[in-house]
Structures are given as C-alpha cells and as structure tokens.
Amino acid sequence: MRKPIIAGNWKMHNTIEEGIKLVREIKSVADNTDVEVVVCVPFTSLSEIKKELQGTKVKLGAQNMHWEEKGAYTGEISPVMLKEIGVDYVIIGHSERRQYFNETDETVNKKVISALKYGIKPIICVGETLEQREKNIEKDVVSKQIIKALENVSAEDMLNVVIAYEPIWAIGTGKTASSKDANDMISFIRETIRGKYGVDISEEVRIQYGGSVKPHNVTELMNESDIDGALVGGASLKAEDFINIVNF
Ligand code: PEP
C-alpha cells in the first residue's frame, strides 16, 4: 500500500510572518490522517517554518536547489544548506522553473541525483503543454522527462523519489485534467518505471497529480487507482482549503 502524499507548493508567496501564521493553522492536520503532509516553502522561511513544525507530523520541503554542494554560483542554494535546516523534500523541475529559469531534463537529473545523495527526497515534476497534448505527443514528452530525470538513479534510491504529474495547462488555470486522464498518464508513468526498475519498485513509487487541485475535486482524483497524492499550488495558501484537501 502506498502512503498518500499531499504537498503544498507555496511558490513565491508568504513572508516569514505570513508563513508562520499559515503553518500554525494547518500543523495539526497531519495528526489524524494516514496522508503524509508536506509544505514546500520559500528558502527564506525554511528555518522558521522548521521550528514551527517541531513536534508535528508535517514535513518540510524546498522548491528548488542547486546540484553542487558549494561553489561560485551566486544566488543558488545547495543541498548541504537544505540538509542543515532539516528539509525532507525538494521539488525538482517544476514547470515554472523549466519555463522561466531554463531548467532542462539534464539539470533536473543532476538535481535529483544530488538531492538523493544528501538524503533529501525529490518530488520530480513532469508534464506536457496544451500544444503537446493537442498533438497527441503527451506520453512521448512525459516518458522522455521521466527517463532522463531518473538516469543513474539506483533502485534503492527510487523508493525515496516522488513523481508529480502536472500537465502545464492545468497549473494555476483552474483547469484540471479529468481524473481519468490524470490516472491514465500516471499509470503510464508507473509502467515506464516498471520497465526500468521492475514491478515491485514501480508499485511502491508514489506519483502525485498536480494542476488546480481544490477541495471540490480532490476526492475524485484520489479515488483513482494510481494517483497517490497531490501537489497543490494556489489552494495550499488558504488554511481551510489545504486542510480540506488533506482530509479528502
Ligand atoms: C503547482 O504549483 O504545482 C500547482 C499545481 O499549482 P495550482 O494548484 O495552483 O494549479
């Protein structure tokens, strides 16, 4: 049985003060659920939010990292720095990073390898554009992203990897993939993992759906056979919505 995982991606929202307020409202949500709850917060808030989460079951995530442990990379944050704070997860290859910050499948792979090396669990984002879906090449696109992201990732490390399928056209747009379409792609991702790592590992890896997940559509998505959780953007900024999503 795969443990469901619901992660909030705050993106570039919330000052430290705002973040603490939000976390105080949601931090007991993980106490009475079998869902693993993660909040992925801006770098500047990680330390303070970590303190706020002490003694709770909510895990802490970052939204990006560099693959090198240190060096002349002005403005970047290394896995060692994240580890020092006690970060559990890191989002890698979010479509906004691919779109606005030139992240490629190659840099995603370097970050994934590095995160695993330093004991941080990567949430690897993949997904197609609307144009690619209309051309019926969405599975080719996603399988290429997955195969490159997982290059040189060992079978053992795969158990610490989470994948998030996020069709780009559904992020922040209010458009959700139908639960059937989302499940279809996520089953396909699982098959791709099975092809490389075998059935046992493919059945253990958790694959989330992301793209306008809200309290009103989360249950239907989570009822699908292969959807193991959600990566939630906008709705993770409102305590009530996020709590209702976790308690789907
Ligand atoms: C996201 O940021 O990964 C996301 C899915 O955003 P939203 O839920 O706002 O579509």
TrEMBL record:
It is an enzyme of class 5 (isomerase). Homodimer. It is found in: Cytoplasm. Pathway: Carbohydrate degradation; glycolysis; D-glyceraldehyde 3-phosphate from glycerone phosphate: step 1/1; Carbohydrate biosynthesis; gluconeogenesis. Its EC number is 5.3.1.1. Belongs to the triosephosphate isomerase family. It catalyses: D-glyceraldehyde 3-phosphate = dihydroxyacetone phosphate. Its main location: cytoplasm. Signal peptide: none annotated. Keywords: Cytoplasm, Gluconeogenesis, Glycolysis, Isomerase. It holds the Pfam family TIM. This is Triosephosphate isomerase. Involved in the gluconeogenesis. Catalyzes stereospecifically the conversion of dihydroxyacetone phosphate (DHAP) to D-glyceraldehyde-3-phosphate (G3P). Gene3D superfamilies: Aldolase class I. The active site is at H94, E166. PANTHER family: TRIOSEPHOSPHATE ISOMERASE.
